[in-house]
Design goal:
By secondary structure, the protein is α/β, with parallel strands linked by helices. It is built from 17 helices and 20 strands. Helix 2 packs parallel to helix 17, helix 11 packs antiparallel against helix 12 and helix 14 crosses helix 15. The structure holds flavin-adenine dinucleotide (FAD).
Length: 468
């Protein structure tokens, strides 16, 4: 869709327009990059003091070393076609680093490692008995049927298959063991809630986006990706970035738009030819005045789960080779995954040192949203000691720092029927409107889906603006 020649870009330069992009997460930065490549001037408004949103990385100094900690996303996949194409177009593929392809699942205190690349690993694993392995054929069949309908920028194509929860589907088509030791841990790890609370289609989205391809990460932390995108020559020239700038209203203004934003209590207004609104759904509902009542209701009702997770910097890496050990609800009610972030590749922690994050289910995080860091760290340490005692002892012996990260709106958890709602919503949007929406709520929460929605919004505006 985006493979356009230099000549086309130059031709568009003669008729460039002014476009505002609200939100500098990966959806907004991808939109801004594509609009700049099409020759338009871009103003990027970001509420925080840094870019990247849920795809950002911070440097934290411990007592003995410095760590690069991904605030939200940390893992990327070669299934992420739009992201890889964008990195190619931006000249950033040399920053992609390969990393471990193993995901482990805990059962009865034993860690079972599975390859994300080779599905044959499911046949050999000791995680599942032979009955479950036979039933897994149904999983592959249903995944193929759903996968045919999925597109990264809009997953509403699977709406007619959205008839039940992941829990009910697993009990109907698979069996209890596959539910408890595969479907439930995958749902909890991705959505932070159990399989009852998400659509079966949501569970298939994760498998479609995760399995069958190698993993990669971005040099220096995934947050460098949007930062580096903004630093490419095409962006440096012709892009205005406003940090600490909170958009409060996006309204029609003649054939264009008017965007009001504020910084430190001072309000400013920008007039532009078009706008991409790339913020989480409830914020879009609040600031875009052109939405219909039904569209606003849809955006307000999108469910995000909360995340309060703890990252430990360790002066020695634990021996585990997997990217993470998922903890099924049968093994522990709160802890859903221990992520071995140093296995993402060099740069997160100094050579030989470790970086481990403990991620919890939504109910645990919600209960701790307002508690102090020390209490949260102690609770996290207590929980890991109950199921992964060796890791807990290793943390006690080698702890250099502990950092708490909090997200009120972390990831989408779309319940059964949610893809049908999404289909009604996307069908109601005007692709020729000068205000286009972008964000992971058109798909499921992944950096790549968010990026693809940003590109889709930019492509729609490029077409509309060419006709103005
Ligand atoms: C803990 C966690 C782990 C994750 N792990 C992974 C992973 O390993 N791999 C993966 O692919 N995905 C992962 N994800 C999901 C992924 O991070 C998100 O789906 C994706 O980054 C969302 O991008 P976005 O641009 O749609 O939204 P955001 O990143 O939320 O960007 C929205 C931006 O808009 C800004 N904003 C909000 N309101 C305003 C306003 N009024 N005015 C101006 N700016 C505003 C915000 O500050 C933010 O920068 C994870 C998410 C979390 C929270």
């Amino acid at each position: 869709m985006w493979h356009r020649s230099q000549e086309e870009c130059v031709a568009d330069n003669r008729q460039h327009k002014n476009v505002v992009v609200v939100g500098s997460g990966i959806a907004g930065t991808a939109a801004a990059f594509r609009l700049r490549r099409a020759g338009h001037h871009v103003t990027l408004l970001e509420r925080e003091g840094h870019v990247g949103g849920r795809m950002s990385t911070r440097e934290v100094v411990g007592e003995r070393a410095t760590y690069r900690i991904d605030r939200g996303a940390s893992w990327l996949s070669h299934n992420y076609g739009p992201m890889i194409a964008l990195l190619q177009d931006a000249g950033l593929t040399s920053r992609m680093l390969s990393c471990s392809d193993e995901l482990a699942i805990l059962r009865d205190g034993r860690v079972h490692r599975l390859s994300l690349v080779r599905s044959s690993g499911l046949l050999r694993t000791g995680l599942l008995g032979w009955r479950a392995k036979l039933k897994a054929v149904n999983l592959l069949r249903d995944l193929t049927a759903v996968g045919r309908r999925l597109r990264w920028e809009d997953m509403s194509g699977a709406a007619d298959l959205d008839t039940e929860s992941a829990h009910d589907h697993a009990l109907r088509r698979l069996n209890r063991e596959l539910l408890d030791y595969l479907v439930e841990p995958l749902c909890s790890t991705q959505f932070l809630v159990p399989a009852e609370e998400v659509a079966a289609v949501s569970a298939f989205c994760i498998m479609w986006g995760t399995f069958g391809a190698a993993s990669f990460t971005f040099d220096g932390g995934v947050g460098r990706l949007p930062e580096d995108l903004l630093a490419t020559p095409v962006m440096r020239d012709g892009t205005r970035l406003e940090l600490d700038a909170e958009a409060t209203a996006v309204e029609p203004d003649g054939a264009g738009v008017r965007v009001t934003w504020r910084r430190a209590g001072r309000e400013e207004t920008l007039r532009a030819d078009a706008c991409v609104v790339a913020v989480p759904a409830p914020v879009a509902a609040r600031i875009v005045t052109t939405l219909t009542a039904a569209q606003r209701r849809h955006l307000e009702a999108v469910r995000y789960t909360s995340d309060v997770h703890v990252t430990f910097g360790l002066d020695r890496a634990p021996a585990e080779t997997a990217l993470g050990v998922a903890v099924p609800r049968r093994e522990h009610p709160d802890l859903c995954v221990a992520l071995y972030e140093h296995n993402l590749g060099p740069g997160r922690a100094p050579a030989g040192a470790g970086l481990v994050s403990l991620v919890f289910r939504h109910h645990w995080s919600t209960a701790r949203a307002d508690r102090g860091d020390e209490e949260v760290i102690a609770d996290a340490r207590g929980a890991v000691g109950e199921v992964l005692p060796e890791l807990a002892a290793h943390i006690d012996r080698h702890r250099d720092l502990a950092v708490v990260q909090r997200w009120q709106n972390a990831v989408l958890a779309r319940p059964a029927g949610g893809f049908r709602d999404l289909a009604r919503f996307t069908a109601s949007l005007d692709p020729a409107s000068p205000v286009q929406l972008a964000g992971d709520y058109f798909a499921y929460s992944t950096t790549n889906a968010a990026l693809a929605t940003g590109e889709q919004a930019a492509e729609r505006l490029r077409t509309t603006l060419a006709g103005v």
